[in-house]
Design brief:
Elements lengths: L2 H19 E5 L7 H14 L4 E6 L6 H4 L8 H6 L4 H4 L1 E2 L5 E3 L6 H4 L3 H15 L4 E6 L5 H8 L3 E6 L3 H15 L8 E9 L2 H19 L4 E7 L3 H7 L4 H4 L4 H21 L23 H4 L16
Parallel strand pairs: 1-5, 1-6, 2-4, 2-5, 6-7, 7-8
Antiparallel strand pairs: 3-4
Helix pairs in contact: 1-7, 1-13, 2-13, 7-8, 9-10
Bound molecules: adenosine-5'-triphosphate (ATP) and magnesium ion.
Length: 313
């Protein structure tokens, strides 16, 4: 291999490795628990020893700082304006989590031009080398900020509750991020939040996965579930993460398991192909206890030749 080819390959691999560490939380529908899951996953992963960057990707309606009771601080706005370098806008949070805040009540940021979104995504990919996990808490809706930032990530966790309205919007996100023959794009996974039971969460996944496969030609893996838990709104009211305020609460325990699974999956995805033993092993959910469940066995994998249906595309 020539030196310039080797250099090109190295750059490509670095980009892939950076994207593999970047995980977006999306939903379409608002208020389904993206910020709660992203913030708590960040703290749980940090508690497991990971270096974590938590990005408030709800650029014009910041919530991460509110949920954690942190003072408003310079963030992506100042970064994009060129007023501050990246190091100056990453702030320390609980458990050593690094936080890139957003701004509040900024319609201009919510409707950022696509070049600016691309610039932010590139800056985050550059920063990803210094972290094990970069979590993006994105806003609701299907605007360019949400879709372009999610597309820059190696993995998009679609957060949905079992309600039909939430599922309809999750379906829309799947369609726009990876359905209808779109090549590449992030790995798509479903996380069922505020589930009444594990069975309800598995059935919710099954339903959406089947619809997406049938009409969009693309399924999505099962990332797991977080139970409906009264201690979540109580923690939010205290402006604390539930993993800190009530570590033994079912929602907190579930998120710690999810964080461990996610760290494992991200690490595996970032390894070079020649380093991966047993390429055909389905790993999603392996550490969560769902590995032997029907949903995990059905987990679709990148590269699987899905039968395509274009009816809804
Ligand atoms: N597992 C849960 N059990 C009970 N309540 C929950 C759970 N998850 C979230 N909630 C409640 O739902 C509220 C909304 O959650 P959150 O702000 O994380 O949603 P979001 O998807 O980020 O909303 P937005 O789209 O506006 O950014 C929380 O403040 C919390 O009270
Ligand atoms: Mg939110």
């Amino acid at each position: 291999m020539r030196a310039d080819q080797a250099e090109g390959l190295r750059i490509l691999r670095e980009r892939e490795a950076a994207a593999a560490r970047m995980v977006a939380f999306v939903s379409g529908k608002g208020g389904v628990g993206k910020t709660h899951v992203a913030v708590n996953t960040a703290l749980a992963a940090a508690g497991l020893g990971a270096r974590v960057l938590l990005v408030d990707g709800d650029l014009g309606l910041a919530n991460v700082d509110v949920l954690l009771g942190l003072p408003a601080a310079a963030g992506s706005r100042e970064l994009l304006l060129g007023h501050e370098p990246l190091e100056a806008v990453i702030h320390p949070g609980p458990r050593g989590v690094h936080i890139l805040p957003a701004a509040s009540a900024r319609a201009d940021l919510a409707a950022l031009p696509r070049e600016e979104i691309g610039r932010l995504a590139a800056l985050l990919a550059g920063a990803a080398a210094g972290f094990d996990l970069v979590l993006l808490d994105l806003g609701s809706g299907i605007g360019p900020v949400v879709l372009d930032l999610a597309a820059a990530c190696g993995r998009a966790v679609v957060v949905a509750t079992p309600e039909p309205t939430s599922l309809a919007d999750a379906y829309a996100v799947v369609k726009l991020l990876g359905g209808c023959g779109r090549a590449g794009g992030p790995e798509l996974e479903l996380l069922v939040n505020a589930a009444g039971s594990e069975l309800e969460a598995l059935e919710t996944h099954d339903h959406l996965d089947r619809l997406a496969r049938r009409f969009l030609g693309r399924g999505l893996s099962y990332r797991g579930h977080v139970p409906r838990d009264a201690r979540v709104p109580r923690a939010v009211a205290m402006q604390q993460a539930v993993v800190e305020a009530a570590p033994t609460a079912p929602a907190a325990r579930a998120i710690v398991r999810l964080a461990a699974d996610l760290l494992h999956a991200v690490k595996e995805a970032g390894r070079f192909p020649e380093e991966k033993p047993g390429e055909n092993t389905v790993r999603t959910g392996a550490a969560s206890g769902f590995a032997s469940s029907p949903a995990a066995v059905r987990t679709p994998r990148r590269g699987r030749p899905w039968t395509r249906s274009w009816r809804a595309c």
